[in-house]
Amino acid sequence: MTDGFARRHVRSLTAVLSVASLALVIAAVRGFVPASAVPHAPDAVLHALPTVNAALSAAAIGTIAVGWRAIRNGNVRRHKAAMLASTLLFVLFLAFYLYRIVVEGTTGFGGPEAVYTYVYLPILIIHMGLAMVSIPLVYYALLLAGTREISEIPATNHAKVGRVAASLWLVSFALGIVVYLLLYVLY
């Protein structure tokens, strides 16, 4: 690899991408992106998106686990493919999630107040917090891996940051599925 801009500025790019990503999510959730800014899908598609996102989350849990196992077994090529698949699944999840939020807004919890207060809300807060913390860690690990030769990666923080990112990502995806179950299946 050359000594390009991205290679020299991994931390700065991580910060810029993280802030931009979080700003986009916050703008969508807070209603700053008008529904008229995106085409309106049929109601059946909009209603299917939470289930599609739960499936994408489950698939991402699988690809992260495959990637983790692959690197522990020394299979760098399989690790790279699995982690890129995890990233693609997350990007699809986020695109569908943000689209639905922009078009329909957030979904209110329909269950009992006690379940909302003592179960749903804590799970949602932890899920969202882990997702927000994961974003810069994932960007950092991806940028390190993408700007270096495979032989150079062990000399970076990629493995250390990647382990933390993967752990938080796994828990966030799992809690996201719990949120889905509480919102769309149980209540």
UniProtKB/TrEMBL annotation:
Q: Please give the superkingdom of this protein's source.
A: Archaea
Which parts of the chain are coiled coil? none
Under InterPro entries, the record lists: DUF420 (IPR007352)
Q: Which UniProt keywords apply?
A: Membrane, Transmembrane, Transmembrane helix
User: Which residue ranges run through the membrane?
Assistant: 12-33, 45-69, 81-99, 119-143, 164-186
What is the protein's given name?
DUF420 family protein
Organism source for this protein?
A: Halobacterium hubeiense
